[in-house]
Design a protein that fits this description.
Arc Repressor Mutant, subunit A; 5 strands; three-stranded antiparallel β-sheet; 8 helices; two-stranded antiparallel ribbon; 205 residues; mainly alpha
Length: 205
């Protein structure tokens, strides 16, 4: 399992129980964490977890000039793509009326979401706006827009399709990471550019 996990981490993957169950179980063992961390340390990296332990990922061990430059680039890219993510999460909370919809492992059923949207003109407008905001092309139907958005967030790693036949998705552990980024930005909302000392742990590969 060690040989399979290292390439995933180096590729910037977030390993959670809903995307790579076996790999996550392996990393949940403290002994395995130690061995993985020992290997990563040799190449200037380290194994970390999201604050609530929903996902493992890889970050730089020490922030030298090159690492800081890479981190700044990655974090600025996240900032540029963050608005559609926030809009999507807010839309989900309105649809489900659940504040804990952002929790890793939450199930999202396309049919149930679509039923609520169909009954609410405001939600239909928000769905169309989100599709445009995310730069996604979809057929001129609300369902096609929703499917396009869900598929896009799967590609970004925030959702995983667990039942293709019933179009059921599950929120992944990566959601915890993006929530930490959002929290960081809210605390530093007056900062226009990301400074070297203000990069949150994890936006580094």
């Amino acid at each position: 399992m060690f040989k399979q996990i290292i390439p995933l981490l180096l590729a910037g993957e977030f390993i959670c129980p809903f995307t790579q169950q076996t790999a996550h179980a392996y990393l949940s063992d403290p002994n395995h964490q130690t061995s993985v961390d020992a290997y990563l340390e040799k190449i200037g990296l380290k194994l970390v977890q999201t604050r609530h332990g929903g996902a493992f990922f890889c970050t730089h061990f020490e922030m030298d000039a090159d690492a800081k430059k890479s981190a700044q680039k990655t974090f600025k890219e996240i900032k540029q793509t963050l608005r559609p993510i926030v809009t999507f999460l807010e839309l989900l909370m309105r649809i489900t009326q659940q504040d804990d919809i952002l929790t890793a492992g939450t199930i999202l059923e396309t049919h149930q979401i679509m039923t609520v949207i169909d009954a609410n003109p405001s939600l239909r407008n928000d769905l169309q706006s989100l599709t445009n905001q995310a730069g996604l092309r979809a057929e001129n139907t609300d369902r096609s827009r929703l499917v396009k958005i869900l598929s896009d967030f799967c590609k970004q790693g925030y959702l995983v399709l667990v039942n293709p036949e019933r179009e059921i998705y599950r929120v992944t552990g990566k959601i915890e990471y993006i929530m930490e980024v959002i929290e960081f930005l809210m605390e530093h909302e007056a900062v226009s550019d990301v400074e070297e000392t203000e990069i949150p742990q994890g936006a580094l590969l």
